[in-house]
Amino acid sequence: MTLSPLRAAFALALLLRLLPAYALDASPEAPLRATYPPGSITSMEKADAALAAASARRTLMDSDYLEGERACYKKFFANACIDEINIIKRNRKSDIDAVELEANRYKRLAHDAENRAEKAKKDAEKAANAAQDAATREQNRLAFEQKQADAARHAAENQQHAAHDASNAAAYQGKVASNAQTVASDEAKRATAMTNTDKDEAQQKQREQDAEAKRQSLAKHRAEKAADRQRRAEEAARAESSGSAGSVSP
Question: What is the pLDDT of residues 128-176, one digit of tens each?
């Protein structure tokens, strides 16, 4: 409620007459809106300063009202006096409320903007992390597939080498057996024609037979070693293939 000029002058004259010892506004400062007009609160610092000033004005207003109310009750026209100071209090409160409302509104909007910016930042980080995770998973999948392919290739190469070794060992063993058979046939022919006077030659031939037998034994040992090498290569290939599949997941 706003007083008309005539009523305000009458009220002021009445109060000055009724309350000679009381100044109705102990701090006749300018309205708070003069310091913080609409649209002037443009930062958190200004908003906090405006709220602090509003709080101080409200404390002063309440103090002035209590003091005025006590003075009014001492006078004959107490009700009229209290009505007038209520009007003045409402006007001061309206001024303070307007500044507080704008300051709080600015802080609320600033907090909302800050929250939106923080959320946008988190969303961007989340999207970037998701993209990085997808790239990492794809890299792991390709690495796993490459490892599987390498394991299969190594197994095939080992099997091929083992088969080649086995083939060479079999061919060598066949050649040794053929040579042994030839030697045995020759020795049989020579033994049929041998006489008692050929003992030295027979001993020489016996040494040759012993040497041939030693060669045959060596050939057999090599063939067995080649067969064992092939078996171990096949087992290693199977173990490597099953181990790669179990330890790496795409």
Answer: 888 888 899 999 999 999 999 999 998 988 888 888 888 888 888 888 8
Count of alpha carbons within 13 angstroms of residue 96, beta-carbon side: 19
CA 96/CA 197 separation, integer angstroms: 147
Predicted confidence (pLDDT) per residue in 59-72, tens digit: 999 999 999 999 99
Q: How far is CA 33 from CA 46, 93, 95, 96, in A?
A: 13, 11, 6, 8
Residue corresponding to tokens 């030839």: 182
CA distances from 80 to 93, 181, 210 (A): 20, 148, 148
pTM over 0.70: no
Rounded-to-integer distance, Cα 74 and Cα 71, Å: 5
* Among the listed residues 27, 65, 30, 35, the one whose alpha carbon sits nearest the alpha carbon of residue 51: 35
Helix 78-193 and helix 199-247: axis angle, to 10°? 170
